Fold these 2 entries.
Entry 1:
Amino acid sequence: MSRALVAIRGVSQRFGADGGAVTALESIDLEIPNGQFVSVVGPSGCGKSTLLSLVAGLRLPSSGTVLCDGEPMAAPMPRKVGMIFQEANLLPWLSAVDNVAFPLKLRHVAKAERLAAARRMLELTGLAGFEDRLPHQLSGGMKQRVSIARGLVQNPAVLLMDEPFASLDEQTRMVLGDELLRIWSETRKTVIFVTHSLNEAVYLADRVIVLSARPGRVVDDVDVDLTRPRSFAMTAGERFGILKDRIWQHIKSAERR
Amino acid sequence: MRRHERLIVAAVVLGLFALWEALVRLGRIDPSLAPAPSTVADALIRLAGRSEVRASLGVTAWEVLAAFLIALPTGLLLGFLLAELPVLGALFRPLVNFLFGVPKSIFLPVFILVFGVSIPQKVAFGVFTTVFVLIVGGIAAVQSVPRELITVSRVYGATRAQIIREIYLPAMAPILLESARLAMVFNITAVLLCEIYGARDGIGYRIAAWGENLQMPQLYAALVIVAAAAVAVNEALRAVETRLGAWRQGA
C-alpha cells in the first residue's frame, strides 16, 4: 500500500458554546492512500459534510490534525484539493469554459493558458461543444459536469465530493457515476465521496467509511472487493448485496435511535 | 416589443393626438387649458431656439447630474456597509427603513433655510432624496449575493479582494443598476420640485413661471421636453441593465 495522501488523526469537531455545544465528529482516524476512491456514508446529520470541509481546509478541527501530502490543512489549498458540492454552484454570469477556468484566474494564470486548460477539462468531462453556454442554458447533469471539470482544472491530487449527484435524477446519476469512474481511472485522483446512496457508495468506491449518528465516529471501514471496471450488472450480484447489507445494518440501527 | 406592437402603439399615440387636435378645433376643449398639439409643437420649436431656455435646461441637467454623482457612490457604499457590518446594520438599518418611508418633500423648507435658494440647495436636496433609494438598493444587492458562491471561491483560494471583484460585483450588478435607475427617477423629481418651489433658473423654474402666467403652449412644450429627457435617461439605464443582467434569464 502506498503512503497515506490524506491523513485524518484524532479529529473532533464541536460547534457552539460550552452549554449548547454539539459534537459533530469525534476521534476520527483515517489514512487514505494515494489514488484511492473512498465513499463516506452515515445517517443524516452525522457530520459527513463537516468532515469534508475539514479536509478542504475551510475550517479547523476543534482537536486533531488533517494532513494532505504531509502538510496540515490550515486553509484551503486549491492546488492540492478540489471540491465539488451538491449544487454545481457555477458563477451564473460566466460561460462554461470561464467557470472551469475560474480557479486558474484566481491564481493569475494567463488567459490563453487557463482557457486552454479549461477546454481540455470540458472535453474530459464530455462537454466539448458547450464551452460558451451560460449555466442557465445547461441541464442539471451538464452543470455538475462543469463543476467536476472546475474541480479538476488545477490537477489537484485530492477531489472532495459532497453528495455531488444528490439533486440529479436517477438516470443522470448513473451516467455521471460511470463518467466519474472513467475520469478517475484516467486521472488517478484520490477521491473522497460523501453520499446518501448506498448503491452509489459501493458501486463507485474501493472502500466505504461508515459513520455513526452524531457524534460521528467511524463504525465500519468496508473494503469493496469488486473488480474494476465496475458494471451495472454487478449491482445485482451477490457480493454487491452482501457489502450493501453490511453497511445498511449500521445505518438502520443509527437511524432508528 | 415586436415590430407590429410598436406600430400599434405609435398608431394609438398619433390617434390620440389627432383626436385632441380635432376636439380643440371643434371647440370642445378650451385651448387656454389644453392647447392643440399643433400649437404646442409650434411653441416647442420656438422654445428650442431660445438661448435662455437652453441655458435653463443646462442648469437643471447639471443639478441632476451632480446630485446623482454624489448620491450614487455614497448611497451604495452606505448600503454595502450596513449589509456587511452587523453592528452598523443593527444600529442604522431601522433608521434607514424609517426614513425611507418619509416623504422627503417635507424637508424642502429646511434645505432652503440652510442653503438658500441656490444650485447647491437643489443638489443637496436631490442627494438627500436619492440616497435612501440607493442605500436600500445596496443592502438588497449585497443580500442577493449567493453565499455558496463565496464558499466555492474560498475553496479555490480566492482572497477577500478577489471575492469582492469576482463574486460580489457581478452578482450585485443587476440590482445595483436597477436601484440606480430608480434613484434617478427620484433624483429628477426632487430637483424639479426644488426648482418649481423656489429658484432663479432651471427648467422647473420656467415651468412654474409659465404656469402662473397661463402661458399654456410654453408650459406644455416644456413638459414634453422634460418628459422626453427623463424617458431617455431611464431607457438608457435600462439598456445597460438588460445587457449586464443577461445571465439572469431563466435563473
Note: Chain A touches chain B through 26 residues (CB under 8 Å).
Entry 2:
Amino acid sequence: MNRYPLWKYLLILAVVVGGILYALPNRYPQDPALQISATRGVEVNETVSQRVANVLEQVGVAYKEVSLEQEQLLVRFHDVDDQLKAQDIVRNVLGSGYIVALNLAPSTPEWLQAFNARPMSLGLDLRGGVHFLMQVDMDEVLAKTLERNEGEFRTLLIENNIPYEDVSRTEEAVLASFASAALRERALDALRGEYRDDMAFDSLEVDGAFRIEARVREEALQEIRNFAVQQNVTALRKRVNELGVAEPLIQQAGEDRVVVQLPGVQDTARAKEILGKTATLEFRLVNEGADAYEAQATGRVPAGDRLYLDRQGQPILLKRRVMLTGDYIIDAQSGIDTESGGPSVTITLDGKGARLFSKASGENVKRLMAVVFIETQTETRMINGERVNVPIKIEEVINVARIQEQLGKRFQITGLDSSREAADLALLLRAGALAAPMQIVEERTIGPSLGKDNIERGFKSVVIGFVLVMIFMALYYRVFGLIANLALTANLLLIVAALSLFQATLTLPGIAGIVLTVGMAVDANVLIFERIREELRNGVSPQAAIRAGYDKALSTIADANITTLIAAIALIVIGTGPVQGFAVTLSIGIVSSMFTAIMGTRAVVNLIYGNRRLKRLAI
Amino acid sequence: MPNAKTRIDFMAVRKSALALSLVLIVISIGSLFVNGLNLGIDFTGGTSIEVRFQQPADLGQVRSVLAEGGFDKAIVQNVDTARDVLIRLAPRPGEDSAELSNEVLQLLRNMTEGGAEMRSVDFVGPQVGEELRDRGGIAILVALAGILLYVWVRFIHWGFSVGSVLALVHDVIITVGVFSLARISFDLTVLAAILAVIGYSLNDTIVVFDRVRENFRLMRKAEPPEVLNTSINQMLTRTLITSGTTLLVLFALLIFGGDNIFGFALALVVGIVVGTYSSIYIASNALIMLGVTKQDLMPVEKEGEGEETP
C-alpha cells in the first residue's frame, strides 16, 4: 500500500494555499495612476486632494479614485490616455512645488495586502521605460584634484615666503622645484603640515633642480572617487524628481558607475536632456538698499545689480560680483546647530576656496548673502531647419542668510525653517559642487507600445506552450498524465507566487525562463512514469511499481536538476540584466518543479490508488 | 501505447555517428573562422533603434534618409512586421549616445507623413560591450567547471565527467556554428540560451549515465557497449518525450515570442536537438573510448548497496 503521513498532505496543502495567496494579487489589474508628492515648503493634504478632484471634474477627465496615503496623493484612472491628459492638467494647476509622477497602482484588495501579498514587479522591457548606465570620468576627477592642489601649493609657498622656481603638474602628480635643498626642506615641512593625510611627498634631484613630487594618497583618492560618485547620484536624484517618475532607481554600480532606471518614462529625449544637466552654485551679496519689487515692476535694475527670483518666486536684487562659486565646495551636510538647536547646513570648502571666502566674508560681516543655484541643460531646437543645441540656464536663489562673522574653511548656514529644508539645501549644495563629468555608457529604452507587445507575446507563449504540454501528457499517460498536469499547474502557480513574494522583477527573458521550465518540469514525471511502466513490464505488482518508480527515479531527477541549477546559478552570479532575469525564473522553476513533480504527484497518486488493490494502472 | 521494449543497436553505428559529429564540428569551427559570429551590439558596442511606421516602411528610403543624415553605414532591416524597422549603427568614438539616437529618430519622424514611433533604443558603449563579452565567457567556463566537478563527485570515475563535458562542448560548438552559418545576431539572450542548453544537455546525459552506472552493476557479464545500448534503449522514451515537450514550448516561443526572443528560442531548439543526440552518441561513446569498465565503478557499487538496503 502507498500512503503518505498526514503531515505531508498538510505541507503540500499549505504550500499550495500559500502559492494561491501570493499569486492572487496578479489577478487584479494595475491601474494607471498619478502619484502626487510635495517637494518643499508645501504639503499634500485634503485641500490638495479636493483641488485635484475638482479640476479633473471640471475638464471632464474621468478618474476612478483619489486617495491620500502617507503624504502622497494617488489618483487612479481607467486608462493611460486619461492618465496622461490628467498629468498635464494637474501639473499646471499645482505648480512647481509638487511632483506629479506617472505610476501603475496595484488594485490588490485589502485582505490580501494584510498578508503583504503584492503583484510581481514588471521589468522595463515589459512596462516601458529607460535604463541608463552612467560612468563617472575618474581621470577628470583626479585631474581636477591635482589642478586645485597645484594652485594651493603656489599660494601656500608664497604665504610662507618660500621662493620656488616652478610649480606644475603631470597626469598623476604635482611637481614643485626649488633652487636649493634647504628651500626644498622648508617647503616640504610646510606642505606636509597642510596635506599630511591627503598626499605623499617625494624628494628628487633632476638636472640640478631640487624637486618635490606630490601624489594623492590611495586612501584619499578612494575618498575623492567615492564622493564624486555619491555626488553624481545625489544630483541625478534631484533631476529625476523633476521628471516625475514613480519608483525611479538610482544607485551606484561598481566603483565608478551609476545605474538609472526610469520605469514608464515616455519622453526619453527629455529624460536624457534633464539627466545631462550640470549644476553650479554662486554666493552673492544681497543689495539691501534697493527695492526689488520696484525693480521688477519698472524693469530698472540698479547698476552693478541683477534681479533674481527666489524659490517662492519673490524678486530679490543681488550684486553682480560673485563672492564664491560652487567649485570650491568639498562637502555640505545638514544637521543641528549646537548653539541655537535649530536645523543647519555645514559647508566645507577646499583650501583656496577658504582663503577667497574668508577675505570676501570678512569684508561683508552683517550683510545678507544669497546662494544662487544655476542649472544648465542643452535643449535641441530647430533653428532655420537646422538642429542646434541651445544651452539653457535656469537660475534660482535657494537661500539667503546674514553673514555673522568672518567665515573660513567650514561654516554654517542657520535660520532654516525645518530640518527638511536643511536637508534639501544640503542636497542642492552638494549637487552644485564641482561635479565629475558623467557619460552614458549603456542605454536600454523600451517604448510603451513595445512593452505592451512583449507582455502579450510572453503571455501567449506561456499559455500555448502550457496547453500543448498538458494535452500531450494527458494523451500519453492518461490518469497519471492528468496528475502530472495538476503538478504542472501548481508549479506555474508557485513560480508566480515566488516572484511576487520576493518582488523579483519579471522580464521578457524571465518569461522565456518560465516557458522553458514548463517544458522541462514534466521531465521528473516522465522519468517516474517511465520507470513505473518498466517495472510493470517486468511483472511487478501495480502498488510496488508505483513505489519503485518513485524511489528509483529520485536520484536521477536530483542529479539532473542540480546540474541545471549549477548552470542557472552561474548565470545569476555572473550574468547581467536580461540574463539574470532568465536565470532567476529558471532556478525558481527548477526548485518548485522538484517539489510539485515528486511530492505533489506522489500525494495525489497515493490518494487515488494508495488504499486499493489494483490489477492494472492507467499509465 | 508504444514501446514494448525498444531494442535499437545504437552502438553499432557509433563510428558513423562520431564521424558525423566531427564533420558538424569542423563545419561549425570553419564557419566561425570564415564568417565569424554576427555579434549583437551587446558585445560589440553600438546603437540599435527600433521604430514603427504608420505604413509598411520602404527600407531603401529609410537607408537613403539615414545616409543623407550622415549615417551611411547604418544596417536597416525589418523586424516583426513590415511596419517595424530595426536600425543598427556601429559604435563611433566620441559620439554621445543620447544625441545619436535622438538624431536618428528625428530624421525618421520627418521622413513620412504619419511619423515614426520609437519602439526601443539600445546603446552599448564599447567598453561595456567588452565587459559583457568577458563576463559571458566566464559564465560559460564557470558553469562547465561546476558541472564537471559535480559529475566527478557523483560518479567517481573521471570518464563520466569527461564524457559529459565533451558532449556539452560538442553541443555548444554546433549551436554557435548554426548562428555563425546563418548569420543570426548573437546577443546576451542567445548567450543565456547557450547556458540553458548546457544545463539541459547535461540533464539528458546524466539521466543516461545514471542508468549506465546502474546497469554496469546489474549486467555483470555484459560488455560495455552492450550495457550502454541497454541503458540508452531503456531511457529512450523518456529522452524523446522530455525533449519533445520542451521543443513543443520552444516552438510556441519561436513562433509567438516575437523577434526579441527569436534568437534565444532558436538557440535552445538547436541546442536541445543536438544535445539529445549527443547524450546518446558523444557522451556514451566517450565512456567506451575512455575505457570505463565495471571495475572502475566498484566503489560506487558498495556505496550504492548501502543506499539500497531498506
Note: Chain B touches chain A through 76 residues (CB under 8 Å).
